[in-house]
UniProtKB/TrEMBL annotation:
Keywords: Pyridoxal phosphate, Transferase. It catalyses: (sulfur carrier)-H + L-cysteine = (sulfur carrier)-SH + L-alanine. Belongs to the class-V pyridoxal-phosphate-dependent aminotransferase family. Csd subfamily. The gene is csd_3. Its EC number is 2.8.1.7. This is Putative cysteine desulfurase.
Amino acid sequence: MNFRHLVLGTDTYIPLKNRKWTKYINFDNAATTPPFKSVMEAINYFAPWYSSIHRGTGYKSIVSTELYENSRNKILRFVGADIENYTAIYVKNTTEAINKLSNRLCKDDKCVVLSTSMEHHSNDLPWRNKFIVDYIETDECGRFSLDDLEKKLIKYNRKVKLVTVTGASNVTGYINPIHQIAKLAHKNGAMILVDGAQLVPHKKINMDGYSSYDQIDFLAFSGHKMYAPFGVGALIGPKRFFERGEPDYKGGGTVKLVSRDFVIWDDPPSKDEAGTPNLMGVLALTAAIDTLEKIGMDRIEEYEYSLLEYANERLSHIDGIELYCNDTSNKVAIIPFNVRGIYHEKVAQTLAEEAGIGVRSGCFCAQPYVQRLLKINKDDIEKFRKNPDLKRPGMIRLSFGLYNTFEEIDCLIWALRKIKNR
Ligand code: PMP
C-alpha cells in the first residue's frame, strides 16, 4: 500500500549540515500534514470563481455561496453526524472551535466542565477561569480513566455541563473511548466535546454513535492536520444548541435584522461565522475529505497502524531509547521517546541536520500531561515557574501520516543508532 503519490512535496530534497542533499522525511504530521495534490488542484480550479459569498447577486457570488453551503453536508457526513439536526460551523482551527464553544457553553460561572489530564493546551486553557474545571486522571501510561470519570460525575451530582476530551492524544497517540465517555456523560446530564484534531485524519468517526446515549455532541478539528491548508477547521454540534444565545463574535453575516434598538440573529451556522468566510479554505477542506474518503478511512487506519507497530518494534530494540509505556494498542501512529543521556532538543536537531528527518521535541503544547509522563515533581515545576526560560525536560515525538513508508522508518532507526553510539 502506498499513498505517497497523493501528497504534495514527498520528493523534496533538502541540504544537510555536511552539504549533501537528501530526501526530506517528515515525521511531524501531528503538527501539520502536507497537502494532498487534489487539494491544490481544487484551489487552482476554483480560484477563478473566488467571490464574496452570501452577499452578492452576481453569478460568481452565487456559485461561491452554493459551493460553500453544500460543503457543510459533506463534512457532516464524513464525521457521521445527523445532517438534519447538526450543523458545521467553519472556524480557523481546532483552537478557535474550542474557544468558540467555551464562549457559548453557559453564562453561569457555576457550570462544571470536566477536562482530562491528557489534553492539548487548546482543550484545557479555554475552560479555565470561566467555569469550575476538574481534570479526569490518566493511568501511569497516560491512558484515560473511565473509573475516574464516573467518580467525578458522581461527585458533581449532575452539575457537569460538559465533558471535554481529546479523541486521540497528540503526545502518546492513545485513542479515547469517546462513545463510552459520551454514554456516561449523557446519563449524568452532561454533553461531550471531542477534540478531534488527532483523530479525524486517522480514524473513521461516527458522531451519531452506535447505541442510545453514546452520540458525540460536539466535535472540533483542523484542516491543516488532514492534508488541507492552514486557516480552516470546523466545530460541529447540534443546531438547537447554537440557536440559543448570542454569538461570541458579532458582525457582518450574523444577523437577520438590525435596527438601532434591536438585533435578530441569523440561524446557525451563519450566526456563528462573523465576517467574510474563508471560502477557499473550506473548498480545500472538502477536497481533502474527498480524497480521504476515496482512499478509505479504514485503510488509512490499518496502514498507519502497521507503521506504528513497525517503528515501535524497531525502536524497542535500540538500547538507550526510552519509550513511554510500550503499548501500541488503541493508538494513532504517534510515538514519544527519549534517547538516554541526550537532551531531546539536541536529538531532534541532529535528526534534522544530519539525516533530513523532521520530528518535534518538547512538550507538544500539553505540558501537564508530559510532566506527568516524565514524572516531574511539584518542586521541579516550581523551579521552572520561577524561571520559565530554563531548559525543561521533554520528549521527541514521531507522528506518521498515510504517505510515510517503512523505508523512512529504517532511515530513522539508522540515524538514531548513529546518534546514540557517538
Ligand atoms: N488539539 C490537539 C489534540 C492537537 O494536537 C492540536 C494541534 N497540535 C490542537 C488541539 C490545536 O490545533 P490547532 O493548532 O490547529 O488549533
